[in-house]
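Project standup — Tuesday

K.O.: blocked on the structure for the chain from last sprint. Re-posting the sequence here as requested.
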Amino acid sequence: MAYDPLSPSEALRTPAGIVLATLSLLVFAYSLVFVGQVLLGLVLVGLSASLYVSYRLFVALDSIADGAQRLADAREREVDATEDSHRTEGDEREPRPQTTSELTERER
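H.V.: unblocked you, prediction finished:
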């Protein structure tokens, strides 16, 4: 089963999320009160938010790749099952080459 990433509200409830949110708010408040630069606070808070968005994007792409791999495996099994059902004992054709996922007893 694929990994299900945390939603933003769930991520803020984790210890790391609480620390990151608190640190982001403190940096933003520091940039407003002491330094007087709004842009500095927005950049630093934006960096932490972009890390989370990048993580979510990576997980989504990984899920897509996992689904495509499962579809390819299922189609390969269907083709193998169809080829095996069409064969008879007296069939004189060459045996089909083994795929990398098939191992003979001797190879195991």
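K.O.: great, moving the ticket to review. The chain has three helices and no strands. The two ends are 27 Å apart (CA to CA).
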